[in-house]
Amino acid sequence: MIVTTADLFRVAYGRFAIGAYNINNMEQALGLFRGHVQAQAPFIIQISKGARKSAGVKMLEAIIRACDEMFPEAIYAVHLDHGDEQTCYECIDSGFYSSVMIDASHEPFEQNVAITRRVVERAHARGISVEAELGMLGGVEEHVAVDEKHARLTDPDEAKLFVELTGCDSLAVAIGTSHGAYKFKGEQRLHFERIAEIQKRLPGFPLIMHGSSSVPREEVERINAAGGKLDPSARGVDEDEFARAIPLGVTKVNIDTDGRLVWTRVHREHFRDHPENFDFRKPGEAFVKAYADFIVHKSQKLKSAGTLSLVRAALLNPAYG
Ligand code: G3H
Ligand code: 13P
Ligand code: ZN
Fold first, then answer.
1. CB-based contact 135:105 (threshold 8 Å)
2. In angstroms, what is the span from residue 277 Cα to ligand 1's centroid?
3. Alpha carbon distance, N-terminus to C-terminus of the chain
4. Nearest partner of 281 among 269, 294, 267, judged by Cα
5. Which of 281, 288, 229 is nearest to 70 (CA)?
């Protein structure tokens, strides 16, 4: 069942984090739904601009609708990941999305505010919520001085002002993570003190953590042992740190790279071990199972496992939260 992102956040805030996973194809969607039903966890399906272009908007929607029928127990929201203004409007007008992300974080503050404000107005008129981004999330090279690194993190006072000026419903904050498999170099880390400062200025307001893949060393080693060429220094977020971030207001945790690593490992090992095979269903089915197991594991780390009955009860009680 598709629900609003706002409803999921209302239940989750301070208690657990909602895993937000990008999907691109049928196998990924099957593993995502199967894993979350198995874990009894709510979730957010994320669709990026790249996925809309690659699989096609209609195909992605059809895959989700099919999964919805196949897994009637599942409770989830559908979200546009890293949208520009135009794509946000397309998704808002389509009526299929629970929420959109407008990512104008590369713009100067005033521009980011103006663009986000326009998207919020249009989204709220349709009952859709908006995630915005403030701060510079991308990878920070090792040679950049510590002061400058900190300057790229989200400024707590600016965050408060930004939320007041835009009316956005949640905020992606730069707290030391970056996208992809190569996140941390040198003494880089998650800046919990920064999250705490932001929460102090925005109590009860959902904060979003992008770039949250953990890039397990074992996964990278298995991929390389099966013919891959990933840099063995690849590093991600320690998934045990989610538990520290949840009471600080982190309500949605974005994970994509880790799922790509599962896909790559399963397929590389399959074709290494079965060089005679050319039936794509075999590695596909192995991936669905591995991805579902991966989702169960992540749900445990995010503390969303086992919360489905709580979510169901809260959906019937608007005062809950
Ligand atoms: O943060 C971006 C996500 O990992 C989606 O990646 O734009 O290649 O679909 P994508
Ligand atoms: P990862 O690259 O760490 O999986 O981050 C995904 C993300 O933030 C999607 O918006
Ligand atoms: Zn992201």
1. yes
2. 30
3. 20
4. 267
5. 288
226 Cα: distance to centroid of ligand 1 (angstroms): 25
The pair of structure tokens assigned to 226 is 């099966």
d(CA 252, CA 17): 5
Other C-beta atoms closer than 10 Å to the C-beta of 296 total 18
Map out the domains of the chain with their CATH numbers: 5-315 (3.20.20.70)
Q: Find the largest Cα–Cα distance for the chain.
A: 60
Choice from 103, 105, 213 to test ligand 2 binding pocket (greatest atom count within 8 A of CB): 213
| CA distances to 33, 104, 138 from 134, in Å | 31, 8, 12
Q: Could you tell me the mean pLDDT of each successive run of 10 residues in the chain, 321 residues long? A: 97 98 98 98 98 97 98 98 98 98 96 98 98 82 58 92 98 93 73 97 98 96 98 92 97 98 98 98 98 98 98 91 82
Query: pLDDT tens, 183-217?
Result: 876 555 789 999 999 999 999 999 999 999 999 99
Angle between helices 26-39 and 281-301 (to 10 degrees): 40
Q: Name the residue type at position 319.
A: A
